[in-house]
Design goal:
about 300 residues, alpha/beta, TIM Barrel, seven-stranded parallel beta sheet, 7 strands, schiff base, lyase, deoxyribose-phosphate aldolase activity
Amino acid sequence: MTTSLTDVATSNVALRSFLHGLPGVDRVGADQRAAMLGTRSIKTTAKARAIDLAIGMVDLTTLEGADTPGKVRAMCAKAVRPDPADPSVPRVAAVCVYPDMVAGAAAAVKGSGVKVASVATAFPSGRSSLDVKIADTTFAVAAGADEIDMVIDRGAFLSGDYLKVYEEIVAIKAACGDAHLKVILETGELSTYDNVRRASWLAMLAGGDFIKTSTGKVQPAATVPVTLVMLEAVRDFLAATGRKVGVKPAGGIKTTKDAIKMLVLVNETVGDGWLDPDWFRLGASSVLNDLLMQRQKMATGRYAGPDYFTLD
């Protein structure tokens, strides 16, 4: 690394020098390690714990133009009590909605411990002025959002305007107040693992509390190798700065097996200190029903039908 961490944000040249001085990612090695970790098997008792852990890490999400207050309330009810017939099932970590749905979501989960997250900053494209992005964020926080999921300007990043991306993240973080900031990299548009590592460091240097793979609107989304690269980045950032940052893979995590792969990846890469909703989330609404079905199978020996749990 050619530039000290205290100097990296002084200019675009300094940021470029620092980010391009990061160690390159061995793509073949990352793919092989991700594949190897994906083959790990876990014992039945550990699987039961992993399922409950994964449920408690889910950000249950609805981000559609057809969202209604009723749909958001129904999702919030499921977030608080994923299986109404089994009170031992843990609640999910958060619900994630558009800014105009935050107030209703906050009222629906009040007192439950479920956080309210809101996408902002012209999600999912990020193509708007900084004033609009700040207004979007401020509105969501005022309505009761505990967390803001912002998208970076991928065009600026890919054209090398790292300072613009950095300054936007700093400004949005300031607009968050006490709310936590998750910075969405949209890794499917970053092309290379080196870019994923650079964008991860850029987001963390600018003050992001979490780095997140994807909006869920672009493929590929949360692949295991990309998540590995991001986990290595937060590990190295902690070693360099003493500040711990969370990770959220989002999009494409559909089965219990997918979710457990992610937990193994976390444990093997950064350690079990990150196996907590405060530091790791799963942006994977569709995985929740599979986790619930697998949990019931382990408890009763029988699979529930696909319509036993509500569909989201």
